[in-house]
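Before the break, one more example. Copy the sequence into your notebook; we will annotate it together after we see the structure.
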Amino acid sequence: MPKYKIFYGLGGGFGGASEQFINEYKNEEKAMEDAYYGACEEYENYSGYHGLRSIEDIIEQDEVDEDEAEEIFNEERESWLDYYVELVEE
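Here is what the structure looks like once it is written out:
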């Protein structure tokens, strides 16, 4: 199986994607899934801080219900994610 370098992080003032690890994957699509989920996890670790709103913040600030707040949260999160993969040449 091919090896891929996995890069992820947050854009803007957070510095963007950086190399996180190298792993074997069936294909590039599977590697991209790991990169995406890593970036999402990073965002969620910062939500509520540094201007990244949590679902609770959105409910309070935008006066919306939890379902709508989750949609807004997902849209805001997507705008911050930075991730990609590189095939490791052997």
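Residues 28-46 form the longest helix (19 residues). The CA atoms of residues 21 and 38 lie 11 Å apart. Try to locate both features in your own notes.
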